[in-house]
Amino acid sequence: MPAIAVLGAQWGDEGKGKATDLLGRRVDYVVKFNGGNNAGHTVVIGDEKYALHLLPSGILTPGVVPVIGNGVVVDPTVLFHEIDDLQARGVDTSRLLVSSNAHLIPSYNRTLDKVAERFLGKRKIGTTGRGIGPTYADKMSRVGIRAQDLFDEKILRQKVEGALEQKNHLLVKVYNRRAVTVDEVVDELLVHAEALRPMIADTALVLDGALRRGEVVLLEGGQATMLDVDHGTYPFVTSSSATAGGACTGAGIAPSSLTHVIGIAKAYITRVGEGPFPTELLDEDGERLRRTGFEFGTTTGRPRRCGWFDVPIARYAQRINGITDLVLTKLDVLTGWDRIPVCVAYDIDGERTTEVPMTQTGFHHAAPVYEFLPGWTEDITGARAIEDLPKNARAYVEFLQQHCNAPISAIGVGPERDQTVVVNDLLA
Ligand code: IMP
């Protein structure tokens, strides 16, 4: 049976939880394959609200095995904070597995993330300040510390010593901070070693076994296509691979196991942090979208930048990921507009294109070319079938579907789990 990826098709915060909910009990494993505690999803179950940053959402579904894959960067303090919080609320976290190859975020990388941003000044990325970028940089520079290193203190000490030779130069000479000692880093990391030990596994091997047994493995993407380090709006991106290729690498499964790629897109678009954003609304309309859509970051609380749906981005996400189904979220937020602009192309210095620009300069110069669709005023939050939607809402969905090269298989019409119009079975 299949591996299914659920990925953001825009700049993140698309509401991936809707798709995860729809797949619900049919999933056996939920794997987080990239990012760290820069992500954030709020899951509401009954009267309980859970804010998860690092743990895969599958932790809340009885029977599912949640997995933190090798592509993730783990802040052990945050991991155990989330686990303790869930346990205190009666959630069973005992099935959680953590890849022995996942990299750890030492506190010096949190410091470096924040000071580096300060030094960038106007050129800052707008990171979440959680140490994500420096930890992925260490991974690529081969000076990272992995989960498995906690179980061999001699090796851990050697690796920390090696890393600190570089880090202390940076901290002291470049950023004017105090040097950190090997002992303090080793102690900080070892605090969690015993608690982590039973969770550590060769998760790629575990997932291979699951797929061979015909079980369903869901690969849950953090961030999104336009924040992917290769395919996003570099350098205003996160430092991991948030696209379908990254799902395979970050979980350690073969690309040929991936049978379904579900892209999540909001009915409009938002972004947190800096970087180009052609359809951004800097006026009262943007404020209205932010207000009605509650567009404030789950992790940092920052107001999200809001804009109209961008077709070139959605088509690009379809192409880069091989999206087989789209889930359109937050359609209800668009209720009450007289007309709804949809960006169908860009004007770049007088030239019209329907593709995402090839260069950063092109992206910065891209002005949206809009088509205007008639709005609707009817409350759609109770719709459960496509026929329940008013004519203009249906036409809006149909228009996006035609332009985005993928069927819209589900539509979110409200924040609750059941406030969804299901058009096609996502596992068909
Ligand atoms: P970092 O991932 O903390 O390095 O931040 C890099 C960029 O990705 C910044 O613009 C962040 O705001 C953005 N980012 C990181 N995680 C998320 C997310 O889960 N949703 C939306 N934006 C994110």
Helix content estimate:
25-40%
Which CATH class of the largest domain is shown?
Answer: Alpha Beta
Number of strands: 19
CATH topology of the largest domain: Adenylosuccinate Synthetase, Chain A, domain 1
Average pLDDT number: 95
What value does the Rg take, in angstroms? Answer: 22 Å
β-strand amount: 15-25%
Silhouette:
globular
Look at the structure and name the CATH superfamily of the largest domain: Adenylosuccinate Synthetase, subunit A, domain 1
Architecture per CATH nomenclature, i.e. the level-2 architecture of the largest domain: 3-Layer(aba) Sandwich
Helix/strand-derived category reads alpha/beta
Query: Cα distance, first to last residue?
Result: 12 Å
Domains, number: 3
Largest sheet: 10 strands, mixed
Bound molecules: inosinic acid
| Count of runs of 4 or more consecutive helical residues | 13
Instruction: Give start-end ranges of low-pLDDT stretches.
Output: none
Labels describing this entry:
Adenylosuccinate Synthetase, Chain A, domain 3, Adenylosuccinate Synthetase, Chain A, domain 1, Adenylosuccinate Synthetase, subunit A, domain 2, ten-stranded mixed beta sheet
Explain what you see.
The structure is a single chain. The protein is an alpha/beta fold. The chain has 3 domains: 3-99 and 200-262, Adenylosuccinate Synthetase, subunit A, domain 1 (Adenylosuccinate Synthetase, Chain A, domain 1, 3-Layer(aba) Sandwich); 103-194, Adenylosuccinate Synthetase, subunit A, domain 2, CATH 1.10.300; 265-422, Alpha-Beta Complex (Adenylosuccinate Synthetase, Chain A, domain 3). It is 32% helix and 20% strand. The protein has 13 helices and 19 strands. The strands form 5 sheets. The chain has a 10-stranded mixed sheet with strand order 9-7-5-2-10-1-11-14-18-19, sandwiched between helices. Helix 3 packs across helix 4 (132-141) and helix 5 (153-174) crosses helix 6 (182-190). Bound molecules: inosinic acid. Inosinic acid binds at residues 12-13, 38-40, 125-128, 130, 132-133, 222-223, 227, 236, 238-239, 272-273.
